[in-house]
């Protein structure tokens, strides 16, 4: 060993460097949320996984190094019942409990703890993969990747039968010779309305953010030489600068779209620094803000990239796939963020910082977009999947990337285990992939779980109570909503909708126009297809508007009751409602930010709806007849999240120790019980400070419960849980032979209803 102050021979220095080799079932390169989800998914299924990232923290653009909000299909509440479940959902729920204030440092630890909880994941931080070796036998495949661990002087070569490129920039796939694209396709290639007339190299730019705090005493700021003089730019005229904004509130600090965002990364960073310090100089020193006691506490040092390589898979997602909500037979994930494209000039553009168009609801992401068309053992997830530039405008956001990661990681495990390529898996065994994802409660919409090993599928299922009334009147408050715009109520039609009574308060006798619509597709929550129009007479004062909807669909679905604008009429509001019932209001004419959410048609009631202002509330109404939407049997219907209805069991409110019971005609042997609780996927959660909820654990989740089996005529406790805050609970229980199993819930996290999406018994 060299001594302090002593010069060591060159041979000693070389000897200190280490070269290692590791073999795994799956190698994931990239430690963003796509890579994390991929690694955890494969590891939980039994694969040995190397997770390799060149950063000191996990989370990619969401980490404390860059601090981008984790957004996804909910689109800040625009899409309903769309929050991601699976591994991304676990992160949302755990962060909500541990980090409700949205601290970026705490978020790093939430992600790291998720990975460290998996013994099959071998984590390599600060390890930069720069070398990829391939072999060309029947088809090109990756044989190894080699990374250098900074600070440790360790070079590691990783071998595996399957590799995942979750790097964002797509370096691993590029070094392996996988086909990719950079820039925008021309309009003629896929017939995309939003594509440019001719292909070009333009990209979405990169961003650097900053955060501030109030010290309570005067703080001066002397701008560095790099600071941009905002008066010489279009920024002051075209962007909103506010002292209370921090971090991703400044998403529009973007630049570099006209450059190569990788090779020009350093130049882009310097320009973005100049913009950040220029904005702060303007806030502190222009005299236009009350900012004397504000100071900077953080400025990012790494540009958060939006776009670079996009690999070519067996299917390229396009604008039409998203806007038509195309159903793919090999769907493995979903998205719902707007097609969100930015001007190439970034922060210096004279136009708005973003052009957005929303789909009517969530859309499918097919497995064929997650593996390489020409490197046989390469999968990918994140912003580098097989999508056109326009479609990438939506698929690129991080919660959506995480859903892709869980799908790709699950596929990697299955490919390695069964000795097949991703293409062979997708072509010949897609049902195996989808059913494996559903068993792990992965974020998959519209695919029914068909698990022959699940004993619950053969059970007679009952409950201590079932919610059957489509009635919000028990929660009526003194508050009312002025009917100065169209409003709507989304409710399940299961099996039918007949007499519908809406409470009203009117200034004088009048008539209301009430229409019935359907949502077009089961994952939508807006009026898309008109069914019928009705007129109801209401009297002055308190009354009810009563119509006979006369609607019996071929199969259960969501229906939308639209009440047209009627000045002088007010609708009583409730402070609760059955799960799956949703109140909407038309946006005011002045707010057209989301005009394209629902395509305009001649008979469309409005071009856009919002429910955020009414979240947790509804209009007081009663629909006659018993609804089957919340029957106990729903826990075994194969859908684990809302899709054309809530697809869950709900007790009646205030059912005390609500009990769900499974009975079998013959004894069964039970070793594992999986419960998917209702975690209210309509609640919009986020990792960093953007908005806060009043609770740390989702109120609809069961908090305290026990699982019991009937053995020799008496109930035996198999598992007891207190203080639950998770959606998907897997209980390994002592092997038990029984004819009856029950789940007894003694407390929720606040909801008066006990509700569960699925119970599976093995």
What assembly state would you assign to the polypeptide chains in this entry? single chain
Q: Which structural category do the helix and sheet elements fall into?
A: alpha+beta
Q: Report the β-strand fraction as a percent range.
A: 25-35%
Shape: globular
Number of contiguous helices: 13
Q: Report how far apart the termini are.
A: 57 Å
Helix fraction bin: 10-25%
- Would you tell me the overall average pLDDT? 94
| Rg calculated over all Cα atoms | 28 Å
Q: How many individual β-strands? A: 39
Please give the largest β-sheet: 7 strands, antiparallel
Uncertain spans: 589-607
Provide a descriptive summary of the structure in words.
With 762 residues, this protein is α+β, with helices and mostly antiparallel strands. It is built from 13 helices and 39 strands. The strands form ten sheets. Strands 20, 34, 35, 36, 37, 38 and 39 form a seven-stranded antiparallel sheet that branches. Strands 21, 22, 24, 27, 29, 32 and 33 form a seven-stranded antiparallel sheet that branches. Strands 26-25-28-23-30-31 form a six-stranded antiparallel sheet, with no helix packed on it. Strand 5 (127-136) and strand 6 form a beta hairpin. 51% of the residues are buried.
Give the helix/strand layout.
Blueprint: H1 10-16, E1 18-23, E2 26-29, H2 33-44, E3 49-52, H3 86-98, H4 104-116, E4 121-124, E5 127-136, E6 140-149, E7 154-159, E8 162-165, H5 171-176, E9 180-181, H6 187-190, E10 206-207, E11 210-214, H7 235-238, E12 254-255, H8 265-285, E13 294-299, E14 310-311, H9 319-323, E15 331-335, E16 339-341, E17 355-357, E18 363-366, E19 378-380, H10 389-395, H11 398-418, H12 422-428, H13 430-439, E20 460-463, E21 467-471, E22 476-482, E23 487-493, E24 497-506, E25 510-518, E26 529-538, E27 541-551, E28 557-563, E29 569-574, E30 582-586, E31 609-610, E32 618-619, E33 621-630, E34 649-650, E35 658-677, E36 702-711, E37 714-721, E38 728-748, E39 755-761
Helix pairs in contact: 2-11, 3-4, 12-13
């Amino acid at each position: 060993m060299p001594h302090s102050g002593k010069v060591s021979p060159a041979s000693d220095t070389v000897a200190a460097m280490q070269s290692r080799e590791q073999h795994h079932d799956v190698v994931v390169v990239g430690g963003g949320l796509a890579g994390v989800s991929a690694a955890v998914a494969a590891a939980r299924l039994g694969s040995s996984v190397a997770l390799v990232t060149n950063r000191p923290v996990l989370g990619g653009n969401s980490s404390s190094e860059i601090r981008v909000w984790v957004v996804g299909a909910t689109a800040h509440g625009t899409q309903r019942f769309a929050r991601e479940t699976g591994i991304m959902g676990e992160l949302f729920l755990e962060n909500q409990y541990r980090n409700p204030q949205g601290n970026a440092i705490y978020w790093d630890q939430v992600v790291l703890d998720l990975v460290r909880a998996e013994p099959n994941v071998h984590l390599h931080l600060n390890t930069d993969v720069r070398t990829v070796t391939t072999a060309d036998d029947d088809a090109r495949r990756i044989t190894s990747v080699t990374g250098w661990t900074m600070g440790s002087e360790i070079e590691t070569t990783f071998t595996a039968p399957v590799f995942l490129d979750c790097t964002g920039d797509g370096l691993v796939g590029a070094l392996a010779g996988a086909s990719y694209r950079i820039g925008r396709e021309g309009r003629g290639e896929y017939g995309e309305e939003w594509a440019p007339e001719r292909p070009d190299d333009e990209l979405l730019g990169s961003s650097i953010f900053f955060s501030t705090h109030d010290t309570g005493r005067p703080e001066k700021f002397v701008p560095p030489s790099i600071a941009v003089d905002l008066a010489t730019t279009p920024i002051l005229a075209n962007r909103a600068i506010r002292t209370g904004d921090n971090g991703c509130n400044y998403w529009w600090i973007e630049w570099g779209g006209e450059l190569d965002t990788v090779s020009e990364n350093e130049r882009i960073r310097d320009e973005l620094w100049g913009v950040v310090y220029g904005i702060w100089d303007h806030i502190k020193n222009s005299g236009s803000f009350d900012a004397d006691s504000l100071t900077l506490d953080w400025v990012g040092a790494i540009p958060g990239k939006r776009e670079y390589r996009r690999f070519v898979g067996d299917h390229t997602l396009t604008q039409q796939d998203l806007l038509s909500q195309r159903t793919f037979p090999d769907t493995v994930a979903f998205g719902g963020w707007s097609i969100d494209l930015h001007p190439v000039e970034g922060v210096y553009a004279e136009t708005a910082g973003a052009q957005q168009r929303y789909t009517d609801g969530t859309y499918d992401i097919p497995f064929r977009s997650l593996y390489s068309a020409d490197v046989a053992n390469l999968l990918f997830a994140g912003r580098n999947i097989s999508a056109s530039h326009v479609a990438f405008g939506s698929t690129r956001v991080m919660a959506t990337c995480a859903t892709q990661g869980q799908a790709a990681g699950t596929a990697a495990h299955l490919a390695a285990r069964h000795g097949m390529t991703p293409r062979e898996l997708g072509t010949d065994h897609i049902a195996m992939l989808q059913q494996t994802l559903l068993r792990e409660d992965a974020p998959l919409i519209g695919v029914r779980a068909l698990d022959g090993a699940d004993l619950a599928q053969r059970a007679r299922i009952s409950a201590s109570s079932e919610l059957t009334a489509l009635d919000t009147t028990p929660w009526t408050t003194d508050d009312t909503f002025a009917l100065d715009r169209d409003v709507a109520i989304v409710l399940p039609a299961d099996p039918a909708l007949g007499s519908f009574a809406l409470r009203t308060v009117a200034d004088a006798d009048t008539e209301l126009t009430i229409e019935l619509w359907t949502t077009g597709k089961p994952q939508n929550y807006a009026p898309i297809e008109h069914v019928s129009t009705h007129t109801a007479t209401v009297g002055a004062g308190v009354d009810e508007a009563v119509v006979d909807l006369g609607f019996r669909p071929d199969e259960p679905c969501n229906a939308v009751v639209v009440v047209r604008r009627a000045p002088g009429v007010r609708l009583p509001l409730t402070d609760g409602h059955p799960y799956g019932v949703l109140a909407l209001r038309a946006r005011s004419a002045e707010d057209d930010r989301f005009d394209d959410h629902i395509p305009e048609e001649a008979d469309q009631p409005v071009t856009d709806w919002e429910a955020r202002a009414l979240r947790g509330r509804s209009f007081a109404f009663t629909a006659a007849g018993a609804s089957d939407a919340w029957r106990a049997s729903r826990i075994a219907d194969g859908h684990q999240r809302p899709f054309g209805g809530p697809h869950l069991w709900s007790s009646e409110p205030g059912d005390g120790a609500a009990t769900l019971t499974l009975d079998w005609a013959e004894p069964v042997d039970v070793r594992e019980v999986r419960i998917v609780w209702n975690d209210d996927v309509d609640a919009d959660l986020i990792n960093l400070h953007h908005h806060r909820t009043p609770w740390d654990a989702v109120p609809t989740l069961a908090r305290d419960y026990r699982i019991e089996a009937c053995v020799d005529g008496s109930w035996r406790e198999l598992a007891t849980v207190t203080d639950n805050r998770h959606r998907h609970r897997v209980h390994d229980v002592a092997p038990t032979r029984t004819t009856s199993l029950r789940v007894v819930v003694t407390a929720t996290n606040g909801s008066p209803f006990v509700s569960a999406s699925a119970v599976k018994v093995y």
